[in-house]
Description:
Pfam family, one: Myb_DNA-binding
Strand content: under 5%
Structural class: mainly alpha
Helix content: 40-55%
Largest sheet: 2 strands, antiparallel
Radius of gyration: 21 Å
Keywords: DNA-binding, Nucleus, Repeat, Transcription, Transcription regulation
Shape: elongated
Domain Myb-like: 17-65, 66-116
Order of helices and strands: EEHHHHHHHEEHHHHHHH
Distance between the termini: 46 Å
InterPro entries: EOBI/EOBII-like_plant (IPR044676), Homeodomain-like_sf (IPR009057), Myb_dom (IPR017930), SANT/Myb (IPR001005)
Number of domains: 2
Number of strands: 4
GO molecular function: DNA-binding transcription factor activity; sequence-specific DNA binding
Amino acid sequence: MEGEPLGWGRQEVDGWRKGPWTSQEDKLLVEHVRQHGEGRWNSVSKVTGLKRSGKSCRLRWVNYLRPDLKRGKITPQEESIIVQLHALWGNRWSTIARSLPGRTDNEIKNYWRTHFKKGKPSKNIERARARFLKQRQEMQSQKQQQLLQMGHVVAKDENEDGGARTVTAADDDDRGSAVIDDACAAPAVAEAAAGGHHHEDLIMHDAMDFMCPMSCALLLHCAVQGGGTGSCCGSTASDEYGSSEEDGATWGSLWNLDGVVDDAAGGGPCTLW
DNA sequence: AATGTAGTCAACCGCAGGCAT
DNA sequence: CATGCCTGCGGTTGACTACAT
């Protein structure tokens, strides 16, 4: 990355340098972040003399310089997680990225575009998905029965105790409804991405797994790894439910998963259910 | 070996939301 | 309350690389 960048035509606009970063610039930025921490990107140029906009600095840091970045190819496990989370959330790359420690939204976005946008997921993924959907289907019918037996079909929005946050996945036509409460400590997808082995634990959560995207991702991951015994759950794999984009948006807003992911990534308990 | 094509990656742009003034 | 600035996000673009013909 040394030497003058070739591309991007304009190299300086309004006093800001554009185009590829030089190692010198990288050094300055890294040093700045080390001293002042992340944020306040607009002040970087003033402090360091870097002729880069705050936006550009932030992007460079987030996508390339951050020390916790995982370099190298997306693993099949990560791939499967991406597929699932995309089915759930659509193009919310930053949200998906939060479930994959060391990966950036940009990376995932690029990966998705090149691998899936053209409609050709790997065989690996197709297999996993098929298995996943089958399991989910079985789960669903089981659960449906259980709920009916318990007279637990939920159509309530104003719900019980104020403390426990309860999320109601209403309106979901073919999926029925479910109420999931705080009891479940969702396994960290971070661990999944890192290759953790909590398969058995997961199965114990199957009651909560209904429509639990984090668990789904993890279970799918297990399936990909070759186990395939994981019970699951409320996926919204796009080809099953139609428009992944819309579903993704809908689900995202339903679940407000940001906090969950953060907790999961930090190894803490899932605060959503 | 040369050329064309597809894949990958890094960086830019515009927009929206949040926050401080 | 209105305005402006900052940050973050998603979409897009362009250069580089690998592979195929």
